[in-house]
Amino acid sequence: MTADPTGRIVLLNGTSSSGKTTLVRALQAILPEPWLEIGIDRFVFSLPKQYLDQPLWSEVFRYVMPDGDADGPFRIETGPLGQRLVLGMHATAAALAGQGLNVIVDHVLLEDDWLADCRARWAAFDLLVVGVRCPLEVVVERERTRKDRTIGQAEAQFHVVHRHGGYDLEVDTSASSPEEGAALIATALEARSMTRPNVS
Question: Tell me, what's the pLDDT at 142?
Fold first, then answer.
């Protein structure tokens, strides 16, 4: 009997500034096998620079102010290029896992059908879906102090990204350190690996 060569996927979903990237680093540091990290920010920032500013940024994501109030909270709509980019990221994760590589996907599930697309594309792989939670006031403060995020983005995402539910595990980054959160995920992965069948 030989080990299944198929890679595994961990999906981390949470708002901007919820601590996903730090959690990924802590997880990579303690897992015994190499795990690649891909994420929505990495894909967005691989675009040509002109797409990261208006007017082309609206082809990726649009920040829509309610009732024309420029000072109020906004909602985020995915543009046509953003949609293709995200679905391409899902396909990339499947291609990597198909080569026997383990993948951590750092995601912000803004659209209702994105999780369904992930599950469909990754159906052949062992998938662990993790909700990365953090209170609104904490992510807003992190966003304010980081200097590299669009102010209001975390709040716009906060009531959207977790609406689908269905997590295998949840981690609250305001209540646990990155190392503690990573240990929870690693434990869940180990438990699942013990039940995975080998193939000959």
Answer: 86
